[in-house]
Hints:
Radius of gyration: 21 Å
CATH architecture of the largest domain: 2-Layer Sandwich
Strand content: 25-35%
Structural class: alpha+beta
Low-confidence stretches: none
CATH topology of the largest domain: D-amino Acid Aminotransferase, Chain A, domain 1
Mean pLDDT: 96
Number of helices: 11
CATH superfamily of the largest domain: ATP-grasp fold, B domain
Amino acid sequence: MRLYLLALNPTDSVTEGFLPAAARLGLDITVLTDQPDAHRAAYLEYPDIEVLDCDVRDFRAVVTRISTHLRPDAVFTNSDHLQTQAALTAQYFGLPGKDWRATLRCKDKGEMRRHLAAAGVDTVWSAEVTESADLTGPVVHDAPYPCVIKPREGVASEDVVLVDTASDLVARGKDILARRPGATLVVEEYLPGELYTLETLGDGTVRHVLGGFHTQLSPPPYFIEERLTFVPAHPEQVVEQVLAQLDALDVGFGACHTEFVVHESRARIIEVNYRAIGDQCDLLLAQLLDLPLFEHILRTHLGEALPTDLEFRRNGAARLEYPCAERAGTLVDAPIATELTVDGVHLTYRSLRGIGERHELYRTNRDYLGVLRATGTDQEVVDRVVAGFLATQRWEIQP
């Protein structure tokens, strides 16, 4: 059976998660990407993987590339940017996949807000800005401050900023539009509350809730995710509210990573990423739950039903930490990759930036210097061991 996997840049989710899972399932793998050299370099351990050049942002190019190659049995992507293209391609070939309308609603943050409001499940003040003149025009005249400005189809908290005044909105908006010519921005009311995630897995009929994370963000006005602590089970009322919003969006096939806030017992969606959680959280989740997560996700795209009673470990504790650069410059000293067990807590540290690399300060997860994954059975012990490990490490950036 042949799996076509659509990708932009190589990611840990694909390289360490989905490709090994596809190999274990005995699938023939063809990667379609607009960055073939980067993928070939990343897959040296998988010489049988076929990598083909393709304009994967255009579903018509994807359809043509597949129809002139080998017959597909599944079309899949874990990229935020390519969910609609994969869904349309799967539909074209009559294969299982997500509803392209649902993938579009999730990717387009303005459309998501309109759809949730029309469905009567949540109404958030929201407006779209396409040019600098809109920042002082009637479209934002009644904007409730503080509010958030962000790219309509952005990812990873990039260019997501909290603004307190109309002048701040103009300044931030012009800055983002200058860096993103042709982009559309969403301005929406700020939703207070603690930030959490809900991780779900479905086959279109059955849906399983795998738990979630409590997210600690950087200080405002930015929204960089600095720490995630595993939550085995959110309160039932919270889960019901989030699932009702996902149902309104028709989300229920494959993996979904939903970010939401809880304020005064009310759960409100921030964004829906219709794919598996990233930044190595999915790798941790599979390990922590003792669950073949990546295989299950791929099986749904092969048309297989999920078990009605999905068995996975429910008593684990975990935390992820992302040491971040605090200034632009060249990384001259940093810890090496490490894997060890301390007081029953398994630690895995991986570098995300090489010694000698120079970077600007992005105010996004591109500022991550590394990622520390920690799993155990007692959250207090996990937290203590993580704090102890980080206290002994050093990251040095020179201008």
